[in-house]
Amino acid sequence: MRDVLEHLRRLGMPGYEAKAYVALVAAGRPVNGYEVAKRSGVPRSTVYETLGKLVARGAAYEVRGSSDATEYLPLPPESLLDRMRREFDGSVAALRTALPAVAAAPEAPPIHGLKDAEAMLDRAGDVVAAARRDLFVSIWPAEMRRLRGPVEEAAGRGVDVSVVAFGEDAGPAAGARVHRHRYSAPEAVLEDLGYRLIVVVGDRREAVVGGFAEGAAWGIYTADPAVALMAAEYVRQDIVLQILADRVGAAELDRLFATDPDLLRLLGRR
């Protein structure tokens, strides 16, 4: 019951109105205000005002009882939910146009810190959900379990999704191009970095970058297109390296990294 009342409240039906509506639905027959108060816990002093508000919003109807007293019937739940959905969708559609029109242009692209795993994965989910053109993801199994659904939804709506997956459990994701990170081995990467890195970039315009280690998590969200482009390129280059390792073999890449002077310089092994 608490869940029902909470969801009704979230959809714009205040507490007393939600309690009265649920009482009407549970009654299964026309009932008067006194019985609604008794069933719902709405104070008798406010129950008729509350029922009036339900009638005004079309969630309940007044009927005449056998004693000519006013009784109330609920709008059927299916009809109420359909109406709420239409109203909600209509408001969202209107705000998509109205809010950008009144928003001031930011002085600089937004960037903010993310100080725990929940905040970081929620923000990464926002980036995935907003992607319309392409999505680049570098991720480990623990984080992929949380984001697999949104990533698959993005692929399903036509987003070009590229994933670098560390570990066998990090993939697959239906509709996405998943490249397993075998060069270097995931355990070697984890030992070298000391934490699991996550990179999520949507449309090369916003990104979440962060790390997870021993119960701690930290990172940033940014809509700076330059930073987002750099993060996307990081994932793209890692994908290229995995493809090369598959095509020419890890041994040949090891030989190049050990002998080529330019690669040695970049790797700091001179």
From TrEMBL:
Boundaries of every Transcription regulator TrmB N-terminal domain copy: 8-78
Stretches assigned to the Transcription regulator TrmB C-terminal domain: 115-209
Name assigned to this protein: TrmB family transcriptional regulator
Natural source organism: Actinomadura sediminis
UniProt lineage: Bacteria, Bacillati, Actinomycetota, Actinomycetes, Streptosporangiales
